[in-house]
Amino acid sequence: MIASPDRTPLPRKFFVRPVLEVAPDLLGRLLVRDTPDGPIVLRLTEVEAYDGENDPGSHAYRDRTPRNDVTYGMSRRSA
User: Fold this and answer.
1) Is residue 77 part of a domain?
2) Which of 2, 7, 49, 51 could form a disulfide bond with 23, CB atoms 3.0-4.6 angstroms apart?
3) Per-residue pLDDT, 79
4) In angstroms, rounded to a whole number, what is the distance separating the alpha carbons of residues 39 and 43?
């Protein structure tokens, strides 16, 4: 889960924005993974963002393929 500094999970609508807006807003947020031994909590201090077909650094830059198909999907969060 990605959370605010108070560990409140970020809502899905936080992520359903252009990637170049979301990425800087992730800085300082917490990445939380609950495990049987207790939570693992990391603060995001660095992120990368690629602007899809408009960005030569993106796998999506040279058209849609099976390899990059996931980059065309709906914004999601990890389980």
Assistant:
1) no
2) 49
3) 40
4) 13
